[in-house]
Amino acid sequence: MSIATTRSTATARSAEAGRRRPGAGRLGRQTRHGWAFLAPFLGLFLLFEAIPIGYALVQSLREKQWSGLGLDGPVERFAGLANYRRVLEDGEVIDGVLRMFLYGVVQVPVMLLLALAMALLFDAGVARGRRFFQFSAFLPHAVPGIVAAVLWAYLYVPGISPVVGLLQDVNIEVDFLGPDTVLWSIANIATWQWTGYNMLIIFAALQALPRELFEAARVDGAGGWGIAWRIKIPLVRPSLVLTALFSVIGTLQLFAEPMVVRSLTANVTATYTPNMAGYAQAFGLNDPNYAAAIAVSLAIVAFALSYGLMRAAQRGVDS
């Protein structure tokens, strides 16, 4: 037998052995099973996330154009980045973004500090009736945002609010719906509704920490404050980052609370937040293309802020 024939025979046998290799068929079945488990998620993601985002992106690159007297209706045409230039030049949208930024800079840290303090108190067992207070803290989150806004609006309106009435009895005049206070009245609604939710996330992380660390710290002479500051808070940093990320996204989605308060005061305009501006353009002025540009721009800002927050948190962990 020639050397060439021997080599070809060996190659064929190796290929056949590879085809018959134990586990190859099992690996293929596992791959198919994996895709089968992923299929429901991928289908829902494609239907409710990818397709709407793609549609909004396409709509943001188009605009309506009327010809003649406009009796034949508008015709959509490709507009490129014209709608995005409008967003950057729209003073009302820019004011809404700045207002939302101020809201987030104040409201998010206050809410997370309250949530962290409550979680630390519950974890330390300082508060009696801990389960009752935990349930009470989480209960506002179970109230829909619209209902919460209506409840608090009742407490803001002079003449029917018991809070305003009590303050007036002690000669304290507060206009919760005034031009300088209405933003913080809205922030109070969101803080009331979401503090308990964030508290539970942080509290769950605290409960997962090994108790031996705290006992060792007490043996070394550390007090409750020292344990909380030097051990508990650093170890639950991922949960703090997660709650901060959720809170930033929630700030960018601010819509329901100012929409309800808007019916009570003229100090909340139709473009008070970027989401309200997009809603007004789409359903009030019948300009869905510009509304889509506002939505996509806001999504880009949300992605940038979320990515920056995650990167900053990662650098903090690495250092």
UniProtKB/TrEMBL annotation:
Occurrences of domain ABC transmembrane type-1 (ranges): 97-311
Membrane topology: Multi-pass membrane protein
Domain of life assignment: Bacteria
Gene Ontology biological-process annotations: transmembrane transport
GO annotations of cellular component type: plasma membrane
The keyword Cell division belongs to this UniProt entry's keyword annotation: no
Entry keyword set: Cell membrane, Membrane, Transmembrane, Transmembrane helix, Transport
InterPro entries assigned: MetI-like, MetI-like_sf, UgpAE/MalFG_permease
Subcellular location: Cell membrane
SUPFAM superfamilies attached to this UniProt entry: MetI-like
Matches recorded under CDD domains: TM_PBP2 (cd06261)
PANTHER family for this protein: BLL4140 PROTEIN (PTHR43227), DIACETYLCHITOBIOSE UPTAKE SYSTEM PERMEASE PROTEIN DASB (PTHR43227:SF8)
Family to which this protein belongs: Belongs to the binding-protein-dependent transport system permease family.
Name listed for the protein in its UniProt record: Sugar ABC transporter permease
Organism: Streptomyces hainanensis
